[in-house]
Amino acid sequence: MSSPVVFIDGDQGTTGLQIHERLRGRTDLELVTLPAAERKDSSRRAEAINACDIAILCLPDSAAREAVAAIVNPAVRVIDASSAHRTQPDWTYGFPEMTPGQPERIATAHRVTNPGCYPTGAIGLLRPLLHAGLIPANHPVSIYAVSGYSGGGRAAVEEHEGPDAANAPPYQVYGLELAHKHTPEIQQHAGLARRPIFVPSYGAYRQGIVLTVPLDVRLLAPNVDGTTLHACLARHYAGAAHVHVLPLHESAVLKQLDPQVLNGTDDMRLSVFSNVEHGHVLLSAVFDNLGKGAAGAAVQNLNLMLAR
User: Fold this and answer.
1) CA separation for the pair 277, 308 (Å, rounded)
2) pLDDT digit of tens for each residue in the chain (308 aa)?
3) Continuous H helices in 191-273
4) Alpha-carbon gap, residue 167 to 157, rounded angstroms
5) What is the Cα–Cα distance from 213 to 113, expressed in whole angstroms?
6) Is 250 exposed, middle or buried (0-12, 13-18, 19+ CB in 10 A)?
7) Per the count of CB atoms within 10 A, which of 2, 97, 129, 225 is most buried?
8) From CA 19, how far away is CA 114, in angstroms rounded?
9) Strand partners, 9
10) What are phi and psi of 203, to 5 degrees?
11) Rounded to two decimals, what is the model's pTM?
12) Cβ of 77: how many Cβ atoms within 10 Å?
């Protein structure tokens, strides 16, 4: 029996390079990419995508939509790492830990949309708590995140690693129009009735994310506090291979969060911090934006799909 053919379309971007690196030594699949001279040849790309078993799209949104439109072979399955299809009802959301049945849905799906890096942390924190009724669906949620500059793609990497790197900003908050493209994705898959306020930023380091969600317990369901929220998250992710909830006694002694601590892994660490006196709680997620936030998630989804 021949090995399944996996075609990476767009293997020269930050996510595509990472996925290619993770897959190129595997013997259980045949990995296909296009040579540089053929990457913009629409007929050659259409030929490659229709000849594969699973296509992984690491393309801008418009190019991802064009690639999907070019598929005429009904057997071809797709993992789209762009944001083109993340809120589409006929695509399966590729966050295996999101709900108990999600791994099976991904394993049997023909169209899987890889989560965004920031939404991975936000949804990972919020979805279980909203589903349990601990945070009201209409709660005014604010989300703050800082990512390594690789989250900005090749242009940001060039800005920080190219010849003018000395002039790169040490820190920058962006999305000041409060209309970041990840916000609808977060709202939909977290189960929020209201659009959250999302404030993203980049730091002058290559990769890694710290994402935080501050909460005032007086606005939550009755008798909900940091301990209640932590217990819910711990139950939800018990046994998960790549999402871990830091025990309360460990988070209680932390003085800072290092966005780079899980770099090079496909893991995400969730924590709950509380100030009982003031009635404040801080939820946090730390993970590699190129790992669990991108390439690691794509490979996790691929492995589920190959297992079928």
Assistant:
1) 51
2) 689 999 999 978 889 999 999 998 899 999 999 998 888 888 999 999 999 999 999 999 999 999 999 999 999 999 999 999 999 999 999 999 999 999 999 999 999 999 999 999 999 999 999 999 999 999 999 999 999 999 998 889 999 999 999 999 999 999 999 999 999 999 999 999 999 999 999 999 999 999 999 999 999 989 999 999 999 999 999 999 999 999 999 999 999 999 999 999 999 999 999 999 999 999 999 999 999 999 999 999 999 999 97
3) 226-236, 248-251
4) 13
5) 24
6) exposed
7) 129
8) 13
9) 57
10) -110, 165
11) 0.96
12) 22
Report the candidate in 48, 47, 62 with the shortest Cα–Cα distance to residue 8: 48
Q: How many residues in the chain?
A: 308
Tokens of 275: 């100030």
**Is 117 an active-site residue?**
yes
Domains and CATH numbers, the chain: 5-114+294-306 (3.40.50.720), 117-289 (3.30.360.10)
Contact 143, 211 (CB under 8 A): yes
Instruction: Kindly list the strands in the beta sheet with 142-148, ordered across the sheet, starting from the edge strand earlier in the chain.
Output: 171-173, 197-203, 142-148, 209-216, 280-287, 268-275, 243-245
Secondary structure class of 188 (helix, strand, coil): helix
- Of 118, 113, 103, 195, nearest in space to 151 by CA: 118
Would you say 305 and 54 are in contact if contact means Cβ atoms under 8 Å apart? yes
